[in-house]
Amino acid sequence: DAGVTQSPTHLIKTRGQHVTLRCSPISGHKSVSWYQQVLGQGPQFIFQYYEKEERGRGNFPDRFSARQFPNYSSELNVNALLLGDSALYLCASSLPQAGGPGDTQYFGPGTRLTVL
Amino acid sequence: QKEVEQNSGPLSVPEGAIASLNCTYSDRVSQSFFWYRQYSGKSPELIMSIYSNGDKEDGRFTAQLNKASQYVSLLIRDSQPSDSATYLCAAYNNNDMRFGAGTRLTVKP
Fold it and tell me: Which chain A residues are within 8 Å of B90, Cβ to Cβ?
């Protein structure tokens, strides 16, 4: 089975532009989470979606938005790009485990965004 | 105060030794804990999850959780050069996964 897939792999944008990143979860997984990872840091939580509804949001500005589609794939949109948005953007999928204590997440390969 | 803290390292151990990685978390209601391995330029790869106090073993890896002390650890036995990577500790609660900055481990042949 395919794991989590993300596109594109790399992206170069200039300040002020808009970007859309895409993610397809593992087959059967219904939840998608987005993270931003800058060099030397751990991933920072941006959003989690389950069944097309937003379940959680991290401390990111409104320039960041996301959505989940009926096939459980997801898009992350970032408007008015800043230099500081340069990072590895990770998508993770999970079942989740209904009634379980946790939410084991499996990461895709990431999209490397560079803002010039 | 960082919510999930790890020693940044680098931690260096000889091949065949035990590597011990530690993590503390500040949110007492965190329910689940995860260890991920991340090679340079790659995405995090799940090693283990742990939900209950005590030890959980999987091959060469043992995770330990102490909720009273808000402490999670990962032991890697018989360390191999291929274990050289950054190890990320994560705590999950209420649809929110918080990661530490990671500990960089180097296993020397």
Answer: 42
Q: For residue B39, give the chain A residue with the closest CA.
A: A109
What's the rounded Cα separation, in Å, for the pair A48 and A95? 12
**Could you please report the per-residue DSSP string of A38-63?**
-TTS--EEEEEEETTEEEEE-S--TT
Give the three-state DSSP class for B83: helix
Quote the CA–CA distance of B32 and B84 in Å, as a whole number: 25
Nearest Cα of chain B lies from the Cα of A35 at a distance, in angstroms, of 10
Q: What is the pLDDT along chain B (109 residues), one digit of tens a residue?
A: 569 999 888 999 999 999 999 999 998 888 899 999 999 999 999 999 999 999 999 999 999 999 999 999 999 999 999 999 999 999 988 778 899 999 999 999 9
Q: Closest-CA residue in chain A for B104? A: A40
Alpha carbon A33 to its chain centroid, in Å, reads 5
Asked whether the beta carbons of B23 and B88 are under 8 A apart, the reply is no
**CB of B11 within 8 Å of any CB in chain A?**
no
Tell me the residue length of chain A: 116
